[in-house]
Every structure is written in structure tokens, then in C-alpha cells.
């Protein structure tokens, strides 16, 4: 079998990373000085890296993150009450694997959505499924799904996501059906999968915002138990204005 046939066989077996590495070895004669085991290890490593990158691309496409943010770019110099040690403890995503939640609260301009997307990006890089949603838009989509018969399918998909990001919670009043949809979603995810909630409202105001006491009690019981909090404050210029992360 000649080199061209080998390349065709690798691609027909969907070993694109290995095929690309084989071409690089052919183009660089110095690799011939390596042992067979070393050259083969390079091929396998290239295939593994290729598959990891493809999976990351798929996960990011599913996530639909609002911001192209990553945890390495978090600015700890800006004064906003961000605890570096707490953030570092969240970066490894172990809290997501344990089904814990995260609440990021603070005034507009403190980088809540950006931080949520940075944690979402970290989760994707750890091989976890992520979905970003603006809370009001998601509840509207669920209302439409009820009408067209796709509610159960949409709901099952959301319930299975490793990390669901609900951005801008509390920005708009909720109708009764929306409150119940939100509770049902959090109930299905409780202690199984993680949810990030960002809000301009302090956690202490969430009960009154929801309005319906029994729903509010049940929602808060589930979303606040075993949860992490980042409570931000605006000190100085808005991050939106200064374009800092």
C-alpha cells in the first residue's frame, strides 16, 4: 500500500487527525529519524487532539454562548467584589459534575453575563454540555412550545443539559404559566444538573419577584440549596463602558 492509499484508508476510517499527522511526517523527513513507536504515538496523539477539538466545537455550537468569554481573561483588577479564590475554585467545573448551582448577582455593568459565559466555556472545554438562554426569552419559547405540541421535547432537552445558564433573571415580570414552567424546569434539574442564574436582583428579592408564595418557596428551596454565589458590586466605571471582562 503506497502513501496515497494509506491516506485514503485513514480518511475512509474517519481518522482525519491521524491522516493530517501522517502528511506532516511525510513533509518533514527528519521524523524518519524517530522510532516506529514514536512516530505512531504522534499519529495517535494528533487524532486524539483532532477529536477533542471537534467535540469542543460541537459543544460550543450547542451552548450558543452570548459572549466569547474564557476564564483566563477574567479581570481581577477591576473593583467589583469578585473573589479570585472563589472563582478559581469554580474553574475546574467540579461543582457542575456534582449538580450544584451558581448565582451571579449585581448591578448592570458588572460583567455578570460575561462571567456566566466564561464558566460555560470552561464547562465545554471539560466536555460538559452547556446551554445559554435569556430567561424571559426561554419562558416565551416554552409558552409557544406548549401551543405547538413541542413542549415535552423542548423540556426534556433542557432538563438533560449539564449546565443551563439563565441570564437576566428578574428583568421582566413573569406570568403564572411562566412561573410554573420555571419551577418545573428547576425541579427536573435539581441535584442532577447545574444552573447558573444571573440577575440584577439580590437573592433576597427573588421571592417577592416571583410573587406566588408556594411557587417561590419551592423554587428557592431547590435553586438555593447547595449553591455558590458571586455577589458583584459596581465600583467606578461600568465594565461595558470600559470594555473590560
Report Rg.
23 Å
Largest sheet: 5 strands, parallel
Count the E strands: 5
Structural class: alpha/beta
The oligomeric status of these chains comes to single chain
Q: What does this protein look like?
A:
This protein has 245 residues and is of the alpha/beta class. The protein has two domains: 3-62, no CATH class; 64-242, P-loop containing nucleotide triphosphate hydrolases (Rossmann fold, 3-Layer(aba) Sandwich). 55% of the residues lie in helices and 11% in strands. It has helices spanning 3-12, 16-27, 36-63, 84-91, 94-97, 112-125, 135-148, 151-160, 176-189, 206-210, 213-224, 239-242, and strands at 101-105, 130-134, 163-169, 194-199, 227-231. Strands 2-3-4-1-5 form a five-stranded parallel β-sheet. α9 links the parallel β3 (163-169) and β4 (194-199). α7 (135-148) packs antiparallel against α8, α8 crosses α9 (176-189) and α9 (176-189) packs parallel to α11.
Core attributes:
245 residues; alpha/beta; Rossmann fold; 12 helices; elongated
Produce the secondary structure layout:
Blueprint: H1 3-12, H2 16-27, H3 36-63, H4 84-91, H5 94-97, E1 101-105, H6 112-125, E2 130-134, H7 135-148, H8 151-160, E3 163-169, H9 176-189, E4 194-199, H10 206-210, H11 213-224, E5 227-231, H12 239-242
Parallel strand pairs: 1-4, 1-5, 2-3, 3-4
Summarize the entry for a quick read:
With 245 residues, this protein is α/β, with parallel strands linked by helices. It contains twelve helices and five strands. The radius of gyration is 23 Å and the shape is elongated.
Amino acid at each position: 500500500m503506497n502513501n496515497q492509499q494509506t491516506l485514503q484508508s485513514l480518511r475512509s476510517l474517519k481518522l482525519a487527525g491521524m491522516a493530517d499527522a501522517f502528511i506532516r511526517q511525510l513533509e518533514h523527513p527528519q521524523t524518519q529519524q524517530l522510532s516506529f513507536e514514536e512516530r505512531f504515538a504522534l499519529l495517535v496523539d494528533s487524532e486524539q487532539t483532532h477529536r477533542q477539538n471537534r467535540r469542543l466545537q460541537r459543544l460550543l455550537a450547542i451552548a450558543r454562548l452570548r459572549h466569547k468569554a474564557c476564564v483566563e481573561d477574567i479581570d481581577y483588577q477591576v473593583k467589583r467584589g469578585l473573589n479570585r479564590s472563589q472563582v478559581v475554585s469554580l474553574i475546574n467545573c467540579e461543582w457542575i459534575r456534582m449538580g450544584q448551582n451558581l448565582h451571579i448577582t449585581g448591578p448592570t455593568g458588572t460583567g455578570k453575563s460575561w462571567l456566566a459565559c466564561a464558566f460555560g466555556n470552561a464547562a465545554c472545554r471539560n466536555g460538559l454540555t452547556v446551554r445559554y438562554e435569556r430567561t424571559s426569552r426561554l419562558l416565551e419559547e416554552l409558552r409557544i412550545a406548549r401551543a405547538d405540541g413541542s413542549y415535552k421535547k423542548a423540556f426534556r432537552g433542557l432538563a438533560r443539559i449539564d449546565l443551563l445558564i439563565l441570564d437576566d433573571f428578574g428583568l421582566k415580570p413573569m406570568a403564572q404559566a411562566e412561573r410554573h414552567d420555571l419551577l418545573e424546569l428547576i425541579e427536573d434539574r435539581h441535584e442532577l444538573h447545574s444552573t447558573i442564574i444571573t440577575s440584577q436582583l439580590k437573592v433576597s428579592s427573588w421571592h417577592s419577584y416571583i410573587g406566588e408564595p408556594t411557587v417561590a418557596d419551592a423554587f428557592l428551596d431547590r435553586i438555593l440549596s447547595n449553591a455558590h454565589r458571586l455577589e458583584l458590586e459596581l465600583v467606578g466605571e461600568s465594565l461595558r463602558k470600559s470594555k473590560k471582562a
